[in-house]
Design brief:
Elements (H helix, E strand, L loop, with lengths): L2 H8 L4 E5 L2 H6 L5 E6 L7 E8 L2 E8 L3 E6 L4 E11 L2 E3 L2 E3 L3 E4 L6 E4 L3 E10 L6 H13 L4 E3 L2 H17 L8 H22 L4 H4 L3 H16 L10 H8 L3 H12 L3 H18 L4 H7 L5 H12 L3 H6 L3
Antiparallel strand pairs: 1-3, 2-5, 3-4, 4-11, 5-10, 6-9, 6-11, 7-8, 7-10, 9-12
Helix pairs in contact: 3-5, 4-5, 7-9, 10-11
Amino acid sequence: MPLVENLTALARRASYVVSKNLEEQALQFTDWHLQYKQISSGRFKGASAITQLSGVRIHVEALNTRILQKGGVPEGTIAVGIPLELEGPANICGEQSSKDTLHVFSCFSDFEFVSPEKHLVANIELETKALCSTENQLLAKQLQTSLSAPAILLQPDAATQLRNMIQQISKISAELPVHDMALQASWQSQLERRVMFGLLESITTSSDAIKEDLKLRKSWQVVKQVERLLENPETCVTSIAELCVALHLSRRTIQYAFEYAIGMNPVSYLRAVRLNHVRADLLNGESVTFAATQWGFLHLSAFAQDYYKLFGELPSITQKKFK
């Protein structure tokens, strides 16, 4: 079933939003400090189905291109994601992800998630102070302690059971008794407990599932160093040769680190991140020539082709969107 159709089926009892650009999609995560960068080619489309139930929020997100997501969740919020459809390489905070991986966005104060080309993930947010009872808040603390790694590999049966639970909650959300306050409080409390116990049950304690992959962590450290260089036009690198000099690493080491940590070659990554910087400048009113040049694109016709290939529109069209 196509992503949007699948998402629409889940959204019967939820608000449903289609986003035309990265900024709109990132804003669907209320109070999150999110930044999206597109790192694979194609015109971006995103969609969200959101079910809000007091202290529990279920946000099913669909993306059609690879996105580098960077940010943090609101303070006092537990946020996890379980893939419904996940095809292609994906990583969270340097750890590889599969369809049966629980993504723990609230594990650190900030996170980085590289989505695959085919991405349909159900995100569960628990605002601990908004939970219905003291007992539920204590249960949330227990859950938070168990979510000690950004990527937790679930047993296949446990992952399937968790997906089924999310779909059931999305379908029954309209049954909330709104006219009887006492009944409503009891109903919501039970639903909160169902979500938290479902998550706790799904988490495996297998050492193989939670062990740290030192090789991957080392590769991710290289990627993080490169990201810091790319944050500023004055330090922005444009080639592997520049990276080798800046990081004092061999070309082979850098190539391996990127392939292993985020599943793409460093040249493509450098180009995609720089193009995202150009796009942000164009949306802020900079001229095409200035924005392209300051991020190292000196051959403007080749730049325009690369920009169109990544975003599905010419840079001049993006610049016209500035208001």
